[in-house]
Structure formats: structure tokens, C-alpha cells
User: Fold this.
Amino acid sequence: MIQFFHVSKFYPPSIYALKDLSLSIEKGEFIYLTGVSGAGKSTLISLLHFSEKPTGGKIVIKGKDTSEFSKKDIQQYRQNIGVVFQDFKLLQNKTVYENIILPMLINGTEKNEIEIRANALLNFIGLFSQRNSYPYQLSGGEQQRVSIARAISNNPFLLLADEPTGNLDEGLAIEIMTLLREINIKGTTVIIATHKTQFINKFDGKVFHLEKGKLENE
Amino acid sequence: MNRKKYWIDTLKNYISQDKKRFLLIILITGLALYISFFPFILIADFPKESDNKTIYVYFAPETPESFLESILGEFKKDKHILKILKKLPKDKIKTFINQGIIPVKHYKNFIKLIPPTIIINVKDSSENEIINRLRKINFVEMVKTQRTGEDKLSKFKSIIKFVSFSIILIIITSIFILIIFTLKISFYIHKDEINILKLLGASNTFIAVPLLLEGIFIGLTGGFLSVILWKITLFISQNIIGIYIPLNLTATILFAAPIAGLTISFIGSSVSIYNQLNNDK
Assistant:
């Protein structure tokens, strides 16, 4: 479903975030991108949600060469994937409920459908009672759960998570990882960039270990 | 919730986050639109070419009232004469101005009239003949025509019109630029939010709507503010100072100002926002 062919990302004057990277990810897989800080994990995630463009190589998603994507194609693609950011990226002036339904408003989902799905998601992340709270009124773990709910509200085929447990203590981190695993079981391909390797044994998945922008082993 | 509610809520958020800036921009827009009305007064009050002419007949101060009445009686029968006004009391003159019988531009002349004086409206074609007849009448000291003043004014007519329209154009352009920069600032204030929306796949239109509404809100409110200021000006000028402004112009302003505010702000906002969105990576 996702293929990287000799992908490089170069930042002038002399930094290679990714170097000649080739990999393949199949539908429904649970992927860990591991490596130390600066290994290229976040860059790879950025390439997958088009915040960055590769400086070399080719990325093919669902059989389409992404270098040929127009602005509209990118918008459409982003509407069909979910992204969980390390810093959550929630709208602070919108409630939990409004944040969760945002992707559905963007792609024009029906009002009734929005209501049904939002309530289901609020129950799924255990924050129904706080649906009218603002992000700044929530703990870090709760904000991350809202971020996950927002990411999956459009039933994405791909969920990208960049250090989803980075700022959380172990208990909350396990909670978040459990949530991501449940989403994967429902059929969504999940790619997690993390430096916390302790979860790999607990939540089984395929591991891509990056070192200095290169894939070390699988 | 649907898209419309989301956009309205977002607009409310934008306004509540930055009330002072909003009020300031609305005030500037309102004042600018209000100032632009004054050149319109100048243009609207310009003497227009007409088939009818007004003749002012000034009699000597010692003219007997009975003589004046007999002259009036004689002229009333003349088929070329459309209307005769004897020198009128001040409050009557005001009424006639409001009713449009007496042109506002001649108001000052009426105030200055020395009794006994008559004002005669005649058909243009008969003007010279009537003037000659009037000059031959006893006690008549002076006969003036409206045309004398008009001819002098018409020399400056095009210059005054050009200057007036230039002032209006400058003011409108200033409002336009103000709206562009206001929205540019707003775009940068909400840049984080806009970036998140982009990451979620929002289209430019989805992102732009609350910002467009912000611009339209400023323009429309500014337009209404200018109307309120205009009404206050009318009240003060007519009831306190005693200067009369043509009422038909007020009616035009009531409609035109909010529409002008809306149009300028809509175009200005669109240009600013889409420019930002297209240039923003």
C-alpha cells in the first residue's frame, strides 16, 4: 500500500534526514518507526502527510506516485488519513467535541452522521462527559486521546502517529498504545514513530529501525 | 453541528479574542465612509441645467406694499411665469426648502433678501423678455437671474467634480487597503489554527470563510456606523446650525453606505486571504 523507493530528504547545507530509504508497508499493518532523536522518524512521518517533500526518490501510495499529486489531491489524501501529533495540535478555542468533528466538517459529512460518530468516538476514548471542555482544561493524556479521536473520525485507511506517547507517563502511554492497537485491529494501517522501544514487545508490530536517515533492519 | 455553525462560531471566537482591534478597524472604516459622503454633497448640490429659470427682483426699500401686490397680480396672469414667491418669513423658507420648492443652494440668498423682493420662476425661453419688462417697472432696483451664478459655477464644475471623485476614490482605496492589511494581520494571528486545518485536509474555501466573514462584518458594521454618523450630522446641521442638506442624498446614503462597506470589504478580504493562502506553503 505504501512504498518508498530510494527516498532521500536533504536539508541544506549538509543534513540528510533520510538517505536512500526503501521500504514497503502493507494494508492493516502495525508499524513502529524507531530510532534515536534525529534518526529521521519524524521526517518520514512528515513525508507521509505531505508537510515535507522528498528531495530524491519516489513515494507510492495505493499505487499512485505522490510526486504527481496536485494541491487538491493532497487535500483529499489528508482527509483520508489520520495524524496524531506529539504536541496534539488541537484547536484551543474549540471544545473536545468540536475538535473531534473537525475532519468530518472538512469533508462535508452529514450533520446526523457527525453526531453519531462523534458520540461513539467520545465513548471510545472515554471522554464523553468532557465533550464540552476545552483542550487546555484537559490533562496531556486526555488531550492525546482527543487527538487520536480526531485522527480516526473519518475512518482513515492510514493513521500516522508521531511520538504519541512522547510527553506522557508510562501508565498513560500504555493507555494510548492500547487505543492505537484497537484502531489497527479494526483495519486501519497504523504507523507509529517512537523512541520508546519498551512497547514493542507488549504491542506486537513490524519494526523499521532508522539510524542517521537509513533503514537499519526490519 | 454543521459547517455554517462552525464558521459562525469561529467568527465569534475571532471577534471575542481581539475586540479592541475589531472596534478600532470598524471605527476607522465607518469614519472613512462618512467622510466620503461630503464630496457627494458637493456633487449632488451642483446646479443642474434646467428649462426653468429663477429671477430675483429687488425693489427699493420705500416701495409701497400695495404697489408690490399690484405688480404680483399682474405677473400672475402671465402664461410664461410658472411661480411667484413674495419675500417669505424665515420659517416658511425652511418649509419650502424641505419640500424642495426652494433649492438649498439659494437658501443663503433668501436670508439676505431685502424687503420687498419677489422671486419669479419663468420658462427659459421667456427669460429675457420678462427681465426687460421687470426692469421697466417703477421702484425696481435690480434684477438678477439664476443663470449668472450658474455660468460662473459651471466653469469650475468639472474641476470640482474631478476633485470630489478623486477624494472619494482615495477614501475607498484607503478602506480597501485597510481591510487587506487587517485580514493579513488576522491571518497571521490565526496561523497556527490555519496550519492545523491544512494538515487535516481543509480546502482554502473552508479556511477562508471565517476570515471572509470577519472582513464583511467590519465593512458592513463600518457602513452602518457611517450612516449613524450621517444621521447625527443631519440632526446637528438642520436643528442646531440651520444648514439644510438635500434629503434625497440622505436616502441614497442609507442604502449606499452599507452596500459600499460590504462590497469593499468582501473584495478586500478575498484578495487578502486567497493571496495569503496561495502563498502559504
User: Anything to note?
Assistant: The longest strand of chain A covers residues 15-25.
